[in-house]
Amino acid sequence: MKKIEIDGLLEGIARRLRSRGLRRTRALDLLLREMADCEHPVTIQELAQCPALCEQCDPATVYRLLMKLEEHGMVRRLGLHDRAAYFILVVPGRHHDYLVCTGCGRIEEVDMECPVRSLEQKLEKASGFRHVYHELEFFGICPGCHDGRERHGSAHCC
After folding, report:
1. What is the DSSP string of 34-57?
2. Which end of the chain is more exposed for a tag (fewer CB within 10 A), N or C?
3. CB atoms within 10 A of CB 81
């Protein structure tokens, strides 16, 4: 994402948060900028270790900020419930679906056109709902985990 796009995105998020009574802080700005720069899902630990955030706040603050952003729909949580949660910034007009490995928890973006958009449009028309969206995660076993299981004779579940 280009710097001008990031600046516009961050200003938009700040306006939406302010309209909901939330304060804009330096730590929040740094967290949002880091997430916008990443453009891929990141863990709380990865964010807390970023040099700019390390100097400004502790991991507990990063966690609280992410929970607040998730609560207000500014970030999306991904991953398996028993593993580290990954977070990605919600960018209006951009949509991503993900493939999650049930073995190691690795997350990859699905690099295919999403067929669900036409269903969203039909749902809007039929139901009267507006701003219909979806979040889609597929689960499976990545090649690395599958190969390891195959060597141990446990690659297949059926």
Report:
1. HHHHH-S-EEHHHHHTSHHHHHH-
2. C
3. 6
**Mean per-residue pLDDT, 82-106:** 85
The per-residue DSSP string of 81-145 comes to TTS--EEEE--TT----EEEETTT--EEE--S--THHHHHHHHHHHH---S-----EEEE--HHH
**What is the Cα–Cα distance from 7 to 23, expressed in whole angstroms?**
18
Longest dimension (CA), the chain: 56
DSSP 115: T
Structure-block tokens of residue 111: 């690099």
Cα 90 versus chain centre, distance: 7
Alpha carbons within 13 A on the beta-carbon side of 44: 18
Q: What is the pTM of this model?
A: 0.77
Sketch out the chain's domains with CATH numbers: 1-90 (1.10.10.10), 95-158 (3.30.1490.190)
Q: CA 105 to CA 108: how far, in whole Å?
A: 10
Q: What is the pLDDT of residues 114-156, one digit of tens each?
A: 888 889 899 999 999 988 888 888 899 999 898 866 665 554 5
* pLDDT (0 to 100) of residue 1: 67
